[in-house]
Amino acid sequence: MPCPDPLPSSSITRLLSAAGSGDREALDRVFCLVYEELRRLAAAVRRDRASETLNATALVHEAYLKMLPSANRAWKDRVHFLRVAARAMRQVLADAAAHRAAQKRGGGLALLTLDGSSPAESVLGPDDILDLHRALDELAELNPRQAAVVECRFYAGLSLSETAEALGASVPTVTRDWRFARAWLSKRLRER
Amino acid sequence: MSAPDWSTIERLFHEALELSPEDRARFLEENAPDERVRAEVLALLEADADPGTLLRATPEEMAAAAGLDPAPLSGRMIGPYRILEVIGRGGMGTVYRAVREDLGNTVALKVVRGALGDPVRLARFRQEQRVLARLEHDGIARLLDAGVAGDETPYFVMEYVEGEPITAWCDGQGLGVEARLRLFLDVCDAVAFAHRNLVVHRDVKPSNVLVTRDGRVKLLDFGIAKLLEDAEGDPTLTATGAHVLSPRYAAPEQVRGEAVGVATDVYGLGLVLYELLTGRHPYPVEERDAFAAAAAALRAEVRPPSTAVRRQRAERAAGPPGDASRLARRLAGDLDAICLRALEKDPARRYATVESLRDDIARHLEGRPVSAHPPTRAYRVGKFVRRNALAVTAAAVLALLLAGGVGAVAWQAERTERARAAAEELSDFLVELFEASDPNETAGQTVSARDLLERGLTRADRLRDRPDIQAGILGAMARAYLGLGDYERADSLARRVLAQQRALHGERHADVANALITLARVRREQGGEAEAASLLREALELRRDLLGDRHDLTTEAMLELAAVIQLSGSYDEAEALTREALAARIARHGRDHELVAEGIAALALILWNAGGDLHQSEALFREALAMGERLWGPDDPRLDGTLTALSALLPLVGKAEEAEAVGRRALEMRRRIYGDDHPQTIHQYSNVARALDAQGRRAEARALYREMLRRYEGIFKGDHPMIATAINNLSATFYAEGRLDSAEHYLRQALEMRIRLHGDPDANVALLYHNLGSLLRAQGRFAEAEQALAEAYRQRIELYGADNPVALRTGAAYGDALAQRGKLDEAESLLRDILARQRGESGEISSDAARTMGFLAGVLARRGAYEEAEALYLPALEVARSRMPPTHPRRRELVNGLAELYEAWGRPADAERVRREAGAGN
Lengths: 192, 922
Description:
Chain A is mainly alpha-helical. Chain A has helices at residues 9-20, 24-48, 56-67, 75-106, 126-142, 144-155, 160-167, 171-191. Chain A is globular and about 45 Å long. The relative contact order of chain A is 0.10. By secondary structure, chain B is mainly alpha-helical.
């Protein structure tokens, strides 16, 4: 996905409001920019803080702070931004997982484990991330709003009220969507 | 799914969520438009209750799973090395492919978690590193460099090896046994070389033994474990401690925290060899289950490779290719012996050097005799109990029990952070206990399991500020005391844990259910069946609610409850529970699963107790046993319950000799698990004794009962239910031999003890009155028999109600006693009433009903109502023929009754025929 060079934040603000009012092209561009920013941030965080754990939600918020300097921060922009960032984060994770999974399958390299087990190591693997990504695509076909709720909650770590704000829905609706979508995804993943 | 379906499903889903779990099914039954929608909503509700690991992942876990690690990405410099990419990751740190900028060579660089503070340790670290750097051998990946990065993070630089773990490589190449052994010789050479240079690897395992593309062996991580210990200072603690206990590949001495040496690498090589030859690890323990792995390293018997291979299914995924039984024959003998020798628990019993292991392999390849001889069977069976410090066994048992505790705590902890903290607490706890079992520390004295537990209690008391963890540990201790047969201790601990869990979580919590179950088990062993039953009911209800009806823990509670309530004759409920549990387990795990084996054995037991077809129970027990043997091997302690039950059942189906063999096998197993003077072990004497008794070897049987009594009296003071049972059984041998006076003497002694213990009415007192009645009847003392049976009948009705099968059984005997006393009217009406209750609405004839029909027919025969009597005898005998062996006393009773009827009726030819037919069946 080739992206244009980073834009000044004022343009991002403009793009965001255009995207918010339904401009498809603007949305694509913002998405692209946020996606690139998230990837850059992920790499940078990893460089600077070797001992820390990387946190998807934190990245989204960091991207927000970086891309929308305080002067341009309006509540509405923030919400729009986070909505886009959630989707971008999902894509960043899926791409990283696909890369990792390909590496794993490609073999060739010996896996030098120091120690067979580590409580810190997640039991999840790249395939899990990819499965969820695909299941979420299916859900988006059936019920786009529920899929969006999952993106906001799960990938950007937004609270219920932030999610409601970002999607222009009420908190009870988002609450119900979240619960149902989560059950649906969980069931779908088990069917695989 | 079409759109209208979607909204309906969504609506029903949310409405059902408002209801309590038990009301949901009915709600959907009534409101879902069709089966498909209902099934969909139910599945969604299930998914809602347990959305799975992925949908509960934290943002950190998501990032890590996707490969967005906190690891430095390409470009970052550590010392003179530029990181290229991550190639491995483990508990201690991360491994990267890196390049040395100034020289341009590719290396493997390991960054270790945690920092290296103090200069003394740093110096030692550097010194050790210099020793390792001199280790130059073709088969060893060289340690090139080690250092401390800017932020005090230690790192190692090793020769970069492109290769595969030896096991995977051999599988990939499809190598046979010979080729694998030859490659293994190279591994031995490399390790032996290091040993000559006074470097011990300490962590030999397949993933550290790579084979390069051109087929050369390279050992990784030589001496790294030692370096790390130096870096961390204290090898038994935290991060490195976890490494030393590196679960699946740790040698027993490493688990115990003892000195590590050449023998440790011999053990590691043994593990590699074992996996190369069989395609599997010697202990079937899950990779992540550190405690089970530690316990297995200490305690689990290593199955000879040939046996392990033979046990594998047809499609073996790893190991030398080809037919399993052919491979098994190839491994049997030398290679079995070599592996077992290398994997001895006691370092002193292993090969003294890697060279001697290497020599044995070489000799085997040349067809010369090897030095490792297969250990004799007696040696293998007894080696732990007899020679090794008992403490080691005790610690291992404790580790197993505590592993349950860890599970419970981890389960309860919602966040991985808390789970980890809890696991660490427990691991420290274990380490301390293992230290106690170190013979060096205890000056050669054996530390008993009890001492160990005492120590554990003291330590647990110090965890007051972490009540959740403390409760987990105390729960494990309660189970340990229960396991040791110290029921009083177990009782007070289990009650304390229950109170603590309730205080922590309220009434409705999984941990409360666990605590209830532990207490119930203790109460059951103490003879408090009624309390055990009510505790189990509460636990079962909680688990059904919290976990669903089909969860393994829910079915566990069902089986426990069924086991307890069948003692008091609630057979129908017990059978229903057992069948529900078994069906759920099969649905969840398929037919070939250990939980299914357990369920089948439970079903066999309840059918037996309920007076069902003995052959059916026997067949079920055998099925469970065969499944267990297949899954776990013939010596696994989990076979204990089934073996014990089968040994008790077999004499009843006329297979007394097999019963003795099975009984002795179970006894041996219990000796091994529990030791000689444990109630569970002593209890099993009685099954062997009964088998002897059934073979007519009464004196031997009695000797065993006396031995049993002697041992019980050694551990229990004064009156005890088990002593009463033993006395009762002793009396039964006299009874069987026809020495009725002696039988009566002991029976009355047992009865008096039971009355002192339990009062009136009581299930056991009633049982002994029943037995006394039968005995007196056999002596022809019908007046006294009538009295005793009346007492038994009264108590049983009071205890269980008039329709209860146990009460009815006694009632029938009482009815017969009345008949013998000539009280025919009274007898007839009682027996008719009992028979009607026994046959119920279905009219089916149970074994019990058949017996009653015999009694009633006897009464009718005496009154001259021959036809009606015959009409009772014939179907009753039919039932007996189909369910009991010809020698079964009840079947004989019926045969004699019918023959006598024909004689009285003036049909001697028929009487003759009936007797002949019965005789022919003998």
